[in-house]
Amino acid sequence: MATYVIVDVEITDAVLHRQFMERVTGTVESHGGRFVVRGDAIRVVEGGWSPKRLAVLEFPDAGQVDRWLGSPGYTALDDLRSRSSRINMVVVEGS
Q1: Euclidean distance between the first and final Cα of the chain, in Å?
Q2: pLDDT for residue 63 is more than 90
Q3: Where are the beta strands (DSSP E) in the chain?
Q4: What is d(CA 16, CA 77) in angstroms, rounded to the nearest whole number?
Q5: Is-contact 2 59, C-beta < 8 A?
Q6: Which end of the chain, N or C, is more open, meaning fewer C-beta atoms within 10 Å of its C-beta?
């Protein structure tokens, strides 16, 4: 079952975040994932959530998400990600 990773991103260093994005895409793709949404043109229509930037990733299943999150390629980017942004991330299975 398709599984989605939803990331609410606040970029704190645009130069470093660009480097992170250039490197993270390959780690996602190597685990069967793809970016469905990446952007900051967000229109809040209800509620108090006001994300600055969103990314939605799609993977074939939850196992692939877990393998990606624990992969050496992705974990090697932890420092770069934390120095360039603050994130909230959730994983949800599709219907």
Answers
A1: 8
A2: yes
A3: 3-11, 34-39, 53-59, 85-93
A4: 11
A5: yes
A6: C
